[in-house]
Amino acid sequence: MARMAHWVDAIPTFVVLTVVLFLPGWLVVRALGARGLEALAVSPAVSTGLITAFATVAQPLGVRWGLVPLAAVTAVSFVVAWVARRLFGHHDTELHPARRLLGRPQPDAALAIAIGAVLALATILPSIGRPDELVDSPDAVFHLSRIKTFLESGNFSIANPTLYPSGFHVWVGTSLLTGSADVLPGTNVATVLLAAVVWPIGCVALVRHALGTSRLVTYAAGLASAAFIAFPTALLGWGVLWPNLMATALTPGALALMLQAARSRRVGQWLAFAAALPGLALIQPNALVALLVFALTWFITARVRAGLMGHLAWRVVVRDLATVAVAVVVGLVVAPTVSALLASTQSYEWKDKVSVWAALVEVVGGRVLISDVLWGLVVLMVLGIGWIALRARAALPVVAMWLACVVLYVLSASSTMSWTALVTGYWYNDKIRLASLAAVPGVVLVAAAAPAVRELAGRVPALGRRPVAAALLGALTIPVLTLGLNGGTREQMLADFFRPADPSKVILSRDAQASLARLAALIPPGQGLVGRPENGSPLMWPLFGTRTLYRSIPIPPAGDGIVIGTGFDDMAHRPDVCEALARNDVRWAIDSSHVYWLDKPERSSGLKDLAKVDGVEAVRTDGQYTLYRITGCGLGAGM
């Protein structure tokens, strides 16, 4: 594994990842008739859908997925999109030729996005440290291994090796086919791209739709994209929930396009929005559920507001709300009965339940994974909600969206009733994911604080005569009360994810990686290795290409993995263990005094203290690791 010590070295990888993520989808949505910032914001979801779907189809057709098939798929999809628009969107208002070809540049929006990107990079890059730094989370093992499996096999199907939403992995793997980086640094660069480019683009697009396109609001949107710790900071390391990071980063852009299409009623924009949905589902299906929650919240709020203003009869409002309520209840009850995968997702249980009040403090005060309430963020959101209520009532549905996220969070964090899983199970009943989702409408509320502060400042005689100064004060209030007050907190959170102080929470230190790299060089190509997942050995697959039996932490609860994990120390009397070893061509074992903190040690009980196991022979010790050759089960004869 080649080291990538400096972020400058990652620039080529960053460029390739950006092109693969944006270009195919952007060409398609432009052919469908979407334009402007919304088209750019939604293009990564469309690209991911194209890449993942066609990479999966390529496998049964005997086509090895790569950049040439991607180029062909993009060209064909562009033509299909152009034809679809001609067939279904021919009633849309015709655009000026220059607008059709180039679009209409929006310098303020571009600068706002750049501001958000710079703030994100300034926070994220120093905290991570290096592009090849390993985040210490068990989920990272699975995600890195899946990308490596795609690259080594050439099979990028979502069913390789098991069915899983693989939009994130296919995008990263396809980009790494260029050879610009190894799996670990390439994946880290991909997550930085999502946090520092995709997220600000979506935030600026959404805020401009919700609050208008004034310069102050536009710049406030870029600043607000870096205001939250719950997103994207938390999901860069927690879990690691990289697919959820990608899905949430794409949600504001998809929501912005949905609102644009609903207002303009242009068929081309609806087609572009529809084209984004498969990609979101293939990244993380809960992104679709989030969009549905936001759409229903917007509809309900708009209906109630229409009733209050006399635009609709209350009997119509009540009828519509009752219809929505019935449909939602039926959907929640029926969905897990028809989807075993959803039922499994909803079965996740978390032990750290808190009181309702504590849950409210966590989600409203930003005290998620940290010990302090983010009072600056609270002040901004209060100001933003107040300004929306008094000056921008058309954006009240966004306040309702945020409240819906708060309710979901409280249910997940505090409720012990079984029925709540029907509602929060789409997010694995995980409050961290829901806190991150709350940042989507939360960005709009924070951005609304800028015009609120400007209005308050305008009442001060010295500033009232200087509107530019008042506007500047309004905009700068956002970074001062967030990055200024809590910059150290978010940096420490990321540093703890990548460099934990507790050695038991380090999966694989740099010294350990070096030891395993030297031991991996002793194993003939293609031969399998087994070791306790808790000692970090599964990472030998994505880091060094050693064919490890386990590629996740902990051991799967069924199949050959559990047979070997629990019976390896008794292979002399366990024919089933020998058969499992032979089926997987496992001829090497590795042991270590290092044990990662994760539980379920019973699944690997047969792989402890290999020096005492009959049927293995020590080959070399390097650091805390000892490599063994398996001589039992007749496997040693073929070495």
Brief description of this entry?
The chain has helices spanning 11-32, 36-58, 67-88, 97-102, 107-128, 138-153, 167-176, 183-211, 215-224, 229-233, 242-264, 267-283, 286-308, 314-338, 340-346, 356-365, 375-391, 396-414, 421-424, 431-458, 461-464, 467-498, 510-520, 540-544, 560-567, 575-583; strands spanning 528-531, 547-548, 586-592, 616-622, 625-630. It contains 26 helices and five strands.
Task: Indicate the structural class.
Answer: mainly alpha
Count every helix, treating DSSP H or I runs of 4 or more residues as helices.
26
Strand tally is 5
Estimated radius of gyration = 26 Å
How would you portray this structure in words?
By secondary structure, the protein is mainly alpha-helical. The chain is built from 26 helices and 5 strands. It is globular, with a radius of gyration of 26 Å. InterPro entries: DUF6541. Keywords: Membrane, Transmembrane, Transmembrane helix. This is 4-amino-4-deoxy-L-arabinose transferase-like glycosyltransferase. Pfam families: DUF6541 (PF20176).
